[in-house]
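We now fix the convention by which a protein and its fold are recorded. The integers have meaning only within a learned vocabulary of local backbone shapes. The record below shows the convention in full.
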Amino acid sequence: MTYLQVIKYLESFINYEKAVAYPYKVSLKLERVMDFLKAVGNPQDRLRCIHVAGSKGKGSTCAFITYILREAGYRVGLYTSPHLSDFRERIRVLKPRGTYSPKKEFEGMISRESLQGLVERLKPAIEAYNHKSKYGPLSFFEVYTALAFIYFLDKHVDYAVLETGLGGRLDATNVAHPLVCAITPISYEHTQKLGNTLGEIAGEKSGIIKGHGQIVISAPQEEAAMRVIKAKCKATNAKIYTVGKEIKYLPQKEYFSVKGRLDNYLGLSTDLIGRHQLINAAVAIGLAEGLKAKGATITSEAIKKGIAATVWPGRCEIVKRKPFVVLDGAQNVASAATLKKAIRENFQYRKLVLVLGISSDKDIKGICAQLSSLADRVILTRANSPRAVAPHILAGFFQDKENYLAAEVSAAKKLSFSLAAKGDLILVTGSLFVVGEFKDVQK
């Protein structure tokens, strides 16, 4: 198979990330991916995993713990979703770092040659399974998750950090048996699939908790969500530690500190913008301390260096100055509110040009309401996805603003630079797909 044939083959599987609507509990079957992985030797059972679920901050938390482990001298596999520009970003292996090297976006991303070889190896098993499966054919995410497990095993990673795709309970990554896991802040998202209440959504997210002495780190949660998470921990005999209670963080002017269960971590710094990232960093430190209880050697210095070294593109990321261009994949109401706060606290600008595109399964009205007060001018666009909302529909929520419609992200980018002066800020948000396309467009 050529690399182009590999891409075409992977794209032939149903991709629920791009599906406008589907029956969640019927379409996602954990039994299917478990059945397939059994046929290829259960690679996930030979990996030491860290598992992270939640509504916001999952990716940042995964990045923080990955870089901490790398600084501690471990080889780390990182599996995240979705991607910004290339789906190879989802599978990465970071080697232990002995000396300083410049920060790189998506360092350790699986190579084309490695992906090509993996697909060639796995294709006969995939075809044989899909031919006889009583649970239906594998999806893109299920196939890619299996590829990640096998790749991490091939690369002899010491730890594999896994971010859930959707929910947790039925997510393909939930076949793993993690040493530690984390639940990042839970908010209203994918309500048609995960539930209409925070309690129901928390029930899906906390499905990654396996118990039997497992250590669970939780970000601060709304009472309804925390009640469900604690009940799951109690029912499975898992130990839960919460940021804000057993783990505390203290923001300072240039640095921040975290008081963990095992140690105090002073003078911490991160390039990730926003106070919410301090919570994500504190959750990651909780995970690191949990791994120490499981035998890992992680010094306070490794934690400090790992947090400082963490790179996570597309999250309040500055890609240009004069004017500022900030990219953030906020895609639900809580994330939009957090982004608004981060922009106001961390940037000084004359006017803000908002470039916005949202997927149809999101709370469109709520997201627009959060971001409207930030914007002086609004450019409404859509990603190249069947789930993307048409710009003219979004315009209905910005009737009191100077707004423009752009049929494609490339046109939105060109227009944004024509509207923004040196002292202004261009904020691109609403979807990681929009952020990725904006980033890819040549200036």
The domain at 3-309 is CATH 3.40.1190.10 (UDP-N-acetylmuramoyl-L-alanine:D-glutamate ligase). The CA atoms of residues 17 and 82 lie 8 Å apart. The chain has two domains: 3-309, 317-440. The longest strand covers residues 49-53.
